[in-house]
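Protocol step 4 of 6: structure prediction from sequence.
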Amino acid sequence: MDLTKLFAFSAALAEDAGAGTTATTATTAEAGALSMVSAFLPMVLIVVVFYFLLIRPQRKKDKKVKDMLAALKVNDRITTIGGIHGTIVGIKDDNVTIAVGADKVKLVFARWAIRSVDEVSIENDSEQLV
């Protein structure tokens, strides 16, 4: 075998290897980008799941409570967070005065201390709300 043919053959192999290395480098870069996306995808999915399972329902609940507290009016039957049932007799700024019991004892509460507005249905006119 001739020495020049051997050098030409080795040069051709080196060129092919260099071209293959460039293609391999491009494939490696694509694989690196793909692995980076696949690494962040689970974290993005966790954030989305937390938003729909925890954050969004809590915001809806907070908005509902805020609307309920803003809509309070005199003669509404309410329940406080302490479990006291009464009827609103006065509202002033952030304070609510309620009448409790048969003696109509007046108690003053902060507006935020009201848990719910009770739906009252009177079935009998002789029945007295306590």
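Step 5 (inspection) to follow. The mean pLDDT is 82.
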